[in-house]
Design goal:
The protein is mostly beta strands. It has one domain: OB fold (Dihydrolipoamide Acetyltransferase, E2P). It is built from three helices and twelve strands.
Length: 179
């Protein structure tokens, strides 16, 4: 990823996505690409409306905002994606975070300190488990297993894939857009 300005991610001989390293990482086109280049949290959701240039999505009764230009789905059922390092953990549920996506009711079920960061696994009320990477800024700041938490992130870091986001792209179709 550090040596190329354009990369083709292939799956079983088919191009899943063609683009710059940043585009592939920040705005994957399929679940395969989302998890091939790093790790992604993907949650099923349903479009409930629009607000300006944003798509409003219901994820198990909680609202998530997806910028319309980061939504690859054309239907109402989609997968909401966010990378683990984009999420912050809030342990005081009274904290209000204006303009942020927020999923409440999480519980830390695993915490792995790795020096530069801590990897958390947070279980949400409906059983989904999301991975969160946090930079270790405070001494002794690792949250213990069992800590209630909310997951918070900037909507600009959210992407959406079609609910069946596994379709690949034929080589000829992908190369047709390359000039």
């Amino acid at each position: 990823m550090t040596m190329a300005d354009t990369i083709a991610v292939m799956n079983s001989g088919r191009i899943e996505q063609l683009g710059s390293p940043t585009e592939l990482y920040e705005f994957p086109a399929t679940t395969f690409v989302a998890n091939f280049l790093g790790q992604s949290n993907l949650l099923p959701g349903r479009v409930t409306g629009r607000s300006g240039t944003d798509v409003l999505v219901d994820v198990q009764g909680q609202r998530v905002v997806v910028p319309a230009e980061r939504n690859r789905s054309t239907g109402n059922d989609l997968l909401v994606g966010v990378r683990p390092e984009k999420i912050r953990l809030l342990t005081d549920v009274r904290d209000g975070v204006e303009g942020q996506n927020r999923l409440d009711g999480g519980v830390v079920v695993d915490a792995s300190f790795s020096g530069v960061s801590t990897q958390y696994l947070v279980r949400l009320p409906w059983g989904a488990e999301l991975t969160v990477f946090t930079q270790n800024l405070a001494v002794g700041g690792v949250l213990p297993v069992g800590t209630p938490t909310s997951l918070v992130w900037d909507p600009a870091h959210t992407f959406a894939l079609a609910g069946d986001a596994t379709a690949g792209v034929e080589l000829e179709d992908a190369l047709a857009g390359v000039g």
